[in-house]
Task: inverse folding
C-alpha cells in the first residue's frame, strides 16, 4: 500500500488516528504528505483544519466525549508543531501577534493562522488560548508588532472581544479578527469596527496590505445607549436564580438534581443570558437565534428536551418585558427553537 | 445728484420703506413717552428741517453704486469710490472690470486685496443699486478663529493617539502618520542615534487619506547637517539648504528641492532631544509663524510620547529579564513520563506569581518534581518562589528522599525568612518519580501542607491521594506527610494549586470551585494526554471564574506513558511547539 499523496486521500486515515488518540500515527500521516510534496500550508489547511472541525462536530453530536475532543485537539497541535518544524520558514517580515480572545479556548484555528503567517515569512508570536487583555497590551508595549490577529470562536465573547480590539487600537497596533464568533460573514466584526478575515490565507493577505489594515470603519454601537446590555449583565445572577426557581416550580424532576446536574443547568442558563447579552451588544437577534438552534441540537443529542429551554426563554421574556430589544431577541429565539425542535423531532 | 434724489429713492424690493415726511409725525405721535436717549428717532422731530439723506447714506459701512436702466453708473458714494476706484459715474458698470459687479452676480469677491461682499437691489424704473461692503477684517478674524479651532482639534487628536504608552517604534510611526497631511506632505522623524546608528520613520501622503509609512537606519555620520544640528537642540533656520539636504538623503519622494518648503524641529526630551521631526510640503504653502508654532506644539506631544515609550522600554527590559528568571521552567523530558503544565498568574499583565512547579533529573534515572504556592501575591511572592526553587535546585543534589529533602528545604527557608524578617511560608507537594519495568511509574511524594494530588486511574476512577503535612518555612522540624503511589501505564497524577479549588465563580461569582467540581471535571479524562488534561483543568477553572479576579493558578500533570511500544523517533522529530518561550507567557 502506498502512502496517500493528497490531503483528501489522507483525511480518513488521519481522522482514525485522532479517534485512536495516536499522536505518532497522526504525525506520520502529515509528514508523509509533506514528503510527497504537498506544501505545508495545504497540509495545515486541507488536512488538520477540516479534521479539527469534524472533531467539534462529533462532540456536538455527542459521539465523542469532552476528553476525546481534548485529546484529539492536543494531537492536532502536535501535528501542527511537527509540520511547522519540518517547513522551517525563514522570517523576512515584521512581527505579527496571534492570540485567542480572553475566555476563548479554541486555540487550534488561530494556531493554524499563526503557522500560515509564519510560512509566509512573518515573524509570528502565538500567545495561545484565553489571553487576558492586560497581558496582550503589555506584550504589545514591549514588542513592536506590525499587526495583531485575534480569534474568537464563540459570539458570546464579543463584548470582551471588543474591549480587546480597543486595547490593541489604543496601542496603535492594527487588528485583524477571525473565527466563527464574528458571524459566518464577519458581520459582527464590522459592527465592532474591526478588519475581518474569513480564513488563514485571507488573514495573511490582509496583514500584508498595510493600508487596508489602517483603513477600518468605526464601530457602530450607538444602540448601547439604551442601557439594555448593561442592565442585563448587571442582573445576570438574579436572572439565573429566578429562572432556576421557575424551573423547579414547573418541572418537579429538577428538584432532585445532583450537584453536578445543578451546575450544568446553571451553566446552561448562564449561557442563555450571556448569548442574549452578546446579541444586544451587537444589536443582532440572529446571534441569539443561531445559539438557540445550536443549543437545541446539543441538548437533544444528549436526551434533554428542547421544551425545557423554551420554558426558560419564556421566563426571561416575562421578567425582562420592559426591554424591547431583549423581548424581540427572545421572541425570535423561541421561534427558532420551535423550528429546530420540529427538525430534530422529524 | 442731490440729497433730495437720495430721499426719493425706493429700494424697490418692498422690504424697506423709505421714511418720509408724512410718516414721521405719526411715528412720533405713536410713541410720545419714549425718551429720546433710549431710541433716537429715525425721523427728525416735527418742526426740524428734513435730514440730508445723502450725508446719512454716505456714512453707511456699505458703499453705494447706483446704475440706471442702461447699466450706466449714476452715483458712487465716497465709500464705494474708495473700494472700487475704477467705477466712475457716467460709465457702464460692466466696463469697470470689477469681478462680480461686471457680470451682475452678487456675492463675495476679492478686489484689490480686500474681501468684499456685494448685493444688488433693484430700484424703480429698472434702475439698480449695488451695496458693497468691505469685510476683510471680519473674514480674516473668522478665518483665524477657524484655523485656531482646527489646530486645537488636531492637537487634541494627536494627544489622544499618542496619550497611551506605546512601543517606541509604534510611537515614532504614529507621530509621522499623524503629521501627514495636516503638517506636511512628507514627515520624517529621526530618533537620537544609539551606538552610532539613527533610526528614522517617514510618512508620505498618498492618494487617499491614509499615508504610507516606512522606516530605515542611517549611520550618525551620514545624517544631514540640519538634522544633526536639530539633535543637539538647535532649530535650523536656513530653510533653503535644509530642503536640499533632505532631498539628498532621499527622504522626500515626489518633492524636489526647488519647489518645496521644509522645517526641522527638535523633539524635546529629558536632557537632550529624543529626536527631530522634519516636515516638508510643496512650496505653494510656505510654513508661516502659525504653522511653525503648530509644528512645535505637535513636536512637544510626540516627544512626550517617545520619552514615555523609551522609558517604558528600558524599564520593561529590566522587568523582562527578572521575570524570565522567575517564570516556572517546564519539566525536563523524562523517559516514561509525559508532563503537562498550566500556569496563570493572578496579575494578567505579569507573567509571574506565587505558584511554582518544576522538576530536576536525578542521576539514578528518577526525577524530582514539585508544585507549590507561597504566601502572598505578585512580584514579592514570585521572588520568594525563585529563592525556593534555587534552594531545591541545590538541595536535590545532596538529598533525593522526598520527606528528608522537604525538611532540608524547610530549614533553609526558615533561616532565610528569619534573616530577612519576611515571615513567608509555602505549601508544596514534592515527589520523586521512578520508572518501573512494566512502563508504569512509582511516585514517592512528601506533603508540606498542600492540597492532595489526584490520581486518574485507567479504570476511570479518580482518587484523592491522602497526603498531609505542615506548612514549609514556619516551624523547625515540621510534620511532613509521605505517601507512595504507583501509576500503571496510561494513569495520571495531577497536582494543582488552591487557585483552582478556591476559584470564585458560579451564579453570583462568590461560590468556590471546590475539590468536588475538580474531580467531576477530570472524571472520564483518564485517556487524555497530560498537557491536554492540564489545559482542561485551567479551562474549567477559568470558565468558572467567568472573567472574575483569581489567585495564581498552577497545574502539573504526570502521566505514565511507558518506555512506549512506539518507536521513539517521532518524539525527537517533534520539537517543542515553535516559539515555546511565548507559550509560557501565554500561560501567564
Result:
Amino acid at each position: 500500500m502506498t502512502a496517500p499523496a493528497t490531503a483528501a486521500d489522507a483525511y480518513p486515515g488521519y481522522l482514525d488516528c485522532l479517534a485512536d488518540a495516536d499522536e505518532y500515527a497522526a504525525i506520520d500521516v502529515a509528514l508523509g504528505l509533506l514528503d510527497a510534496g504537498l506544501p505545508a500550508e495545504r497540509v495545515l489547511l486541507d488536512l488538520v483544519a477540516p479534521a479539527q472541525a469534524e472533531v467539534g462536530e462529533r462532540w456536538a453530536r455527542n459521539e465523542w466525549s469532552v476528553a476525546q475532543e481534548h485529546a484529539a485537539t492536543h494531537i492536532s497541535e502536535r501535528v501542527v508543531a511537527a509540520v511547522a518544524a519540518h517547513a522551517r520558514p525563514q522570517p523576512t517580515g515584521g512581527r505579527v501577534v496571534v492570540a485567542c480572545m480572553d475566555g476563548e479556548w479554541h486555540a487550534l484555528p488561530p494556531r493554524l493562522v499563526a503557522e500560515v503567517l509564519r510560512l509566509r515569512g512573518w515573524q509570528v508570536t502565538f500567545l495561545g488560548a484565553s489571553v487576558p487583555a492586560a497581558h496582550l497590551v503589555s506584550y504589545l508595549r514591549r514588542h513592536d508588532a506590525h499587526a495583531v490577529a485575534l480569534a474568537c470562536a464563540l459570539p458570546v465573547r464579543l463584548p470582551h472581544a471588543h474591549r480587546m480590539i480597543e486595547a490593541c487600537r489604543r496601542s496603535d497596533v492594527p487588528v485583524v479578527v477571525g473565527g466563527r464568533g464574528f458571524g459566518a460573514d464577519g458581520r459582527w466584526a464590522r459592527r465592532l469596527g474591526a478588519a475581518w478575515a474569513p480564513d488563514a490565507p485571507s488573514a495573511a493577505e490582509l496583514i500584508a496590505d498595510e493600508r487596508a489594515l489602517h483603513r477600518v470603519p468605526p464601530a457602530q454601537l450607538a444602540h448601547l445607549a439604551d442601557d439594555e446590555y448593561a442592565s442585563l449583565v448587571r442582573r445576570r445572577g438574579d436572572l439565573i436564580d429566578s429562572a432556576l426557581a421557575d424551573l423547579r416550580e414547573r418541572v418537579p424532576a429538577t428538584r432532585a438534581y445532583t450537584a453536578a446536574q445543578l451546575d450544568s443547568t446553571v451553566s446552561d442558563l448562564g449561557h442563555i443570558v450571556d448569548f442574549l447579552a452578546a446579541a444586544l451588544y451587537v444589536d443582532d437577534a440572529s446571534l441569539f437565534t443561531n445559539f438557540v438552534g445550536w443549543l437545541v441540537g446539543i441538548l437533544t443529542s444528549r436526551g434533554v428536551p428542547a421544551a425545557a429551554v423554551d420554558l426558560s426563554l419564556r421566563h426571561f421574556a416575562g421578567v425582562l418585558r420592559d426591554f424591547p430589544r431583549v423581548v424581540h431577541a427572545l421572541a425570535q429565539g423561541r421561534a427558532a427553537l420551535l423550528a429546530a425542535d420540529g427538525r430534530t423531532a422529524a | 445728484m442731490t440729497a433730495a434724489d437720495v430721499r426719493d429713492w425706493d429700494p424697490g424690493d418692498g422690504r424697506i420703506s423709505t421714511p418720509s415726511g408724512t410718516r414721521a409725525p405719526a411715528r412720533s405721535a405713536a410713541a410720545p413717552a419714549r425718551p429720546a436717549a433710549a431710541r433716537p428717532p429715525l425721523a427728525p422731530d416735527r418742526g426740524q428741517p428734513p435730514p440730508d439723506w445723502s450725508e446719512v447714506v454716505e456714512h453707511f459701512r456699505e458703499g453705494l453704486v447706483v446704475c440706471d436702466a442702461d447699466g450706466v453708473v449714476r452715483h458712487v458714494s465716497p465709500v464705494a469710490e474708495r473700494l472700487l476706484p475704477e467705477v466712475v459715474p457716467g460709465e457702464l458698470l460692466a466696463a469697470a472690470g470689477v469681478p462680480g459687479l461686471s457680470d451682475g452676480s452678487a456675492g463675495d469677491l476679492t478686489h484689490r486685496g480686500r474681501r468684499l461682499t456685494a448685493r444688488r437691489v433693484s430700484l424703480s424704473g429698472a434702475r439698480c443699486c449695488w451695496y458693497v461692503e468691505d469685510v476683510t477684517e471680519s473674514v480674516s478674524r473668522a478665518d483665524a478663529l477657524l484655523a485656531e479651532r482646527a489646530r486645537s482639534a488636531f492637537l487634541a487628536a494627536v494627544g489622544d493617539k499618542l496619550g497611551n504608552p506605546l512601543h517606541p517604534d509604534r510611537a515614532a510611526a504614529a507621530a509621522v502618520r499623524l503629521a501627514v497631511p495636516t503638517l506636511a506632505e512628507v514627515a520624517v522623524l529621526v530618533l537620537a542615534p544609539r551606538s552610532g546608528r539613527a533610526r528614522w520613520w517617514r510618512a508620505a501622503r498618498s492618494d487617499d487619506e491614509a499615508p504610507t509609512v516606512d522606516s530605515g537606519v542611517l549611520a550618525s555620520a551620514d545624517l544631514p547637517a540640519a538634522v544633526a544640528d536639530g539633535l543637539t537642540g538647535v532649530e535650523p533656520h536656513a530653510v533653503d539648504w535644509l530642503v536640499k539636504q533632505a532631498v539628498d538623503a532621499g527622504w522626500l519622494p515626489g518633492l524636489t528641492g526647488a519647489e518645496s518648503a521644509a522645517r526641522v524641529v527638535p523633539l524635546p526630551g529629558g536632557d537632550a532631544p529624543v529626536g527631530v521631526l522634519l516636515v516638508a510640503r510643496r512650496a505653494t504653502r510656505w510654513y508661516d509663524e502659525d504653522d511653525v508654532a503648530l509644528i512645535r506644539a505637535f513636536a512637544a506631544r510626540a516627544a512626550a510620547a517617545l520619552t514615555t515609550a523609551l522609558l517604558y522600554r528600558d524599564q520593561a527590559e529590566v522587568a523582562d529579564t527578572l521575570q524570565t528568571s522567575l517564570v516556572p521552567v517546564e519539566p525536563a523530558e523524562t523517559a516514561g513520563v509525559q508532563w503537562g503544565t498550566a500556569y496563570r498568574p493572578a496579575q494578567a499583565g505579569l507573567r509571574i506569581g506565587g505558584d511554582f512547579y518544576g522538576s530536576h533529573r536525578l542521576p539514578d534515572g528518577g526525577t524530582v518534581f514539585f508544585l507549590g504556592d507561597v504566601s502572598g501575591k505578585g512580584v514579592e511572592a514570585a521572588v520568594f518562589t525563585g529563592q525556593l526553587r534555587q534552594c531545591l535546585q541545590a538541595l536535590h543534589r545532596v538529598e533525593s528522599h522526598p520527606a528528608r529533602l522537604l525538611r532540608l528545604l524547610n530549614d533553609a527557608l526558615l533561616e532565610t525568612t528569619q534573616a530577612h524578617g519576611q515571615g513567608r511560608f509555602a505549601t508544596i507537594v514534592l515527589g520523586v518519580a521512578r520508572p518501573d519495568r512494566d512502563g508504569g511509574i512509582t511516585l514517592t511524594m512528601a506533603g508540606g501542607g498542600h492540597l492532595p494530588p489526584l490520581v486518574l486511574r485507567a479504570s476511570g476512577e479518580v482518587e484523592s491521594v491522602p497526603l498531609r503535612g505542615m506548612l514549609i518555612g514556619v516551624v523547625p522540624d515540621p510534620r511532613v506527610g509521605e505517601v507512595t503511589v504507583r501509576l500503571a501505564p496510561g494513569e495520571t497524577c495531577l497536582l494543582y494549586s488552591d487557585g483552582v479549588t478556591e476559584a470564585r465563580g458560579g451564579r453570583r461569582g462568590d461560590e468556590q470551585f471546590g475539590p468536588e467540581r475538580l474531580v467531576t471535571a477530570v472524571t472520564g479524562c483518564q485517556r487524555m494526554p497530560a498537557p491536554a488534561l492540564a489545559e482542561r483543568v485551567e479551562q474549567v477553572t477559568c470558565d468558572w471564574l467567568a472573567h472574575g479576579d483569581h489567585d495564581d493558578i498552577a497545574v502539573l500533570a504526570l502521566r505514565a506513558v511507558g518506555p512506549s511500544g512506539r518507536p521513539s523517533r517521532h518524539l525527537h522529530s517533534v520539537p517543542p511547539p515553535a516559539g515555546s518561550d511565548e507559550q509560557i507567557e501565554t500561560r501567564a
